[in-house]
Amino acid sequence: MKIALLTNEIPPIVYGGVATWILNFLDMFKDDPDIEVIPVFLAHLDEPPTDFPERYPGIRIIHGPQDIEKTFQDIDITVNNLWVAFDTTKAIKDRYPEKRMISVCHSLIKMEHLTNLGGDATKSFYEQEITFQYSDAVVLISRAELGHYTSFGYDKYDAEPVVIYNSYTPKLDEIDWRPNYALNDIGYIGRHVPRKRPDLPILAVERSNRNDVRVFNMGVDYRGETGNPFWEEMGRKHPKQLVIIPFSSNKETVHFYWNSVGANCITGVYEPFGYTMCETLDRRVPAIVQDIDGPKEICELVKDSVFEYHVDQDFDKDIQNFMESIIRFWDTHPDDRASMANRARNALDGFRPKIIREEWKKV
Fold first, then answer.
1. Which residues contact 135 (CB under 8 A, 6 or more apart)?
2. What is the Cα–Cα distance from 3 to 81, expressed in whole angstroms?
3. Which residues lie below 8 Å from residue 252, measured CB to CB, with a gap of 6+?
4. Helix runs in 190-304, H state only
5. How many CB atoms lie within 10 A of CB 139?
6. Taking all residues of the chain, what is their mean pLDDT, rounded to a whole number?
7. pLDDT, tens digit, for every residue of 310-333?
8. What region does 58 belong to: left with phi over 0, alpha with psi -120 to 50, or beta?
9. Within a 10 A sphere around the Cβ of 23, how many other Cβ atoms?
10. Which of 39, 45, 171, 179 is 20–30 Å from 124 (CA)?
């Protein structure tokens, strides 16, 4: 069986977590005797690098509807990862109506729009809705996502909604690195968008009046024309407690972050899955995590081994709830923190590729 893995995002072209998902999917099926996965790159906003064929043997490039007939004629199933350029999805289904189209919803763009306070990047969420309409099945990456999907009425489309979690391959199974469990400093690492509330840790520490605790915040983007006025002001306001690490994929910078924190904070009001949650568990770093969406589901079997906080849409109440969870972390002995983090890591077993691959085969 030939599966086309349709995407406009594959390293080095990266906009978010989709690129990680694409690589994981390719790796998950690379040795499967019955399934051949062929990456298909849509050059929508980015032209492919010249070394794409070496990086991804067999990759196919399309620029628009004119390339569809030749590219998909020998394909059995398309696993679609696009929500922009919905005309491409429609054109594939119009030309090959008998071939199954499975669209992966990495996040609901309407939810992104609502929880990120609007914005140009997500105001065209209707394009994703059109994509759903031309799909035979829509894969949601958590049960919470299915709930949001249904709340918007998307279950009225003909597409069958199916929940399949993202796969995650632990990287530290055989590595001896451990965090310093005696550290009380905390951190946030990831994208800086309103729905993720990356300022929650520093504001909660400020409210706690703990002047001996630092907050490491990694991922601040200064590449805009005006830099990043919000985080520049936050840095001036908390010069001794807030350590701002600009966005970087440099491995040494990433190592510096993880070596600096006693706990990692997974915050926000909307999170479809949570690769950062998985990496935190993988590294055996104590986790202060929201009680909603994907992160809650990832941790549900090890709930007593993480520091969960109740998410409130009211930001002031959210700061209070988060502060109470931090205090629980501070009040926990380093030996107990270590034991909790080691137990929490068992949650990853349910997301290993061999488990998730079988779920995909059912679709």
1. 80, 89, 93, 101, 102, 103, 157, 159
2. 13
3. none
4. 200-208, 229-237, 251-260, 275-282, 293-298
5. 25
6. 95
7. 999 999 999 999 999 999 999 999
8. left
9. 14
10. 39
Residue 144, helix vs strand vs coil:
helix
CB 39 within 8 A of CB 9: no
Look up residue 94 and give its two tokens.
């119009």
d(C-alpha 237, C-alpha 257), whole Å = 21
H-only helix segments in the chain: 18-28, 52-55, 68-72, 86-95, 109-115, 126-133, 143-151, 200-208, 229-237, 251-260, 275-282, 293-298, 315-330, 334-344, 353-362
CA distance 188 to 322: 13
User: How does DSSP classify residue 104?
Assistant: E
